[in-house]
Specification:
The protein is mainly alpha-helical. 48% of the residues lie in helices and 11% in strands. The protein is built from five helices and two strands. The protein has a two-stranded antiparallel ribbon. α3 packs across α4 (42-50). The two termini are 16 Å apart.
Length: 90
Amino acid sequence: MNELIDYEQQEKTRWDGQAIKRLLKRDGKGQQDLADHVGVTRQSVNSWIKGTLPRGDRFLALCKYFNVGPESFIKVKKDQTSLGSIGFFN
């Protein structure tokens, strides 16, 4: 029964492509600079910013380029929905 309590505030993670924009601005770089370094097109970088998750090797190159950890590109949102509020225990 205690396990149900753990699900009351689950963390949801999702890709934060806007972090790329923030980091580019921080470093005074453009999308083409990043694309050239990582070995992709500027359009690929743009799609990452808009929400497409880069492939594993590209993701690691992205982290290395900005000298940040993978968590820099992940948003965490607490899910406040409890099991009771969706009818399980009412």
